[in-house]
Design a protein that fits this description.
0% strand
């Protein structure tokens, strides 16, 4: 997929890490960064972006949680104790599960149908109303949660048993699958992740240092249009 750049792949991978980080945060504390959460949820409704960053609201401010998480998990400078095995497990599981869902086909079509319902609910209730999140969570529960490998979320029992928190976690897992699908569409692969690790880290460092300056312009100049994520064009 030569039309896409390393920057496209880095942005999508950061999207996966952001969703995984927020799943961990909600499961263990019951709380999550509001901007990062909003960005993940809204990424589910961006079907035909003009460039990869548009999936995440067109602003690198929106993915700083993912940038920080990727750097913490992938950097060789981080001591082993500072890495979070749960987040790494979520990221890898999302990648594997997304490929399985694409191969199956039908679950993704059903997810797209439920997301259309959720999009209509947004217009009536608001972007992240409980009803909207419940519909997204239902899309995951009915069509994804039974597909192997199942993602087992570990955390505090009280948070995991809270219906609102559980729905947010399922919605974020679906957002992680969406970013994984985007990552594969722009040329990402697990083998490539190994060989291009330093490139991913350098992009993340650049995004962390230069949140608002030249990144948006560079992304617009170099990136091409990714295909729809849950719909077939």
């Amino acid at each position: 997929m030569s039309e896409y750049t390393q920057q496209d792949r880095s942005l999508a991978l950061i999207g996966i890490y952001q969703a995984a980080q927020l799943v961990y945060d909600l499961a263990t504390t019951g709380k999550a960064d509001e901007l990062a959460y909003h960005t993940c949820i809204q990424s589910l409704f961006c079907d035909n972006p003009s460039k990869t960053l548009d999936v995440y609201g067109g602003d690198t401010d929106n993915i700083q949680v993912g940038v920080t998480s990727l750097l913490a998990q992938m950097s060789s400078e981080q001591v082993t104790q500072s890495r979070n095995i749960e987040i790494t497990r979520y990221v890898l599981s999302l990648m594997i599960l997304e490929k399985k869902l694409v191969d199956l086909g039908e679950p993704m079509q059903k997810v797209a149908g439920i997301l259309e319902v959720a999009k209509s609910q947004q217009a009536h209730f608001g972007e992240e109303h409980d009803n909207v999140i419940a519909s997204i969570a239902r899309a995951y529960s009915e069509n994804v949660s039974q597909v192997k490998p199942r993602i087992i979320v570990n955390g505090q029992h009280g948070h995991l048993q809270n219906a609102r928190v559980a729905n947010k976690i399922r919605a974020l897992l679906l957002a992680g699958i969406r970013s994984s699908l985007l990552w594969h569409q722009v040329g990402g692969s697990r083998w490539g992740l190994i060989w291009s690790r330093k490139k991913y880290l350098q992009d993340a460092l650049n995004l962390q240092k230069d949140v608002k300056d030249d990144h948006d312009q560079d992304s617009g100049d170099q990136s091409k249009e990714p295909t729809s994520m849950f719909k077939q064009d």
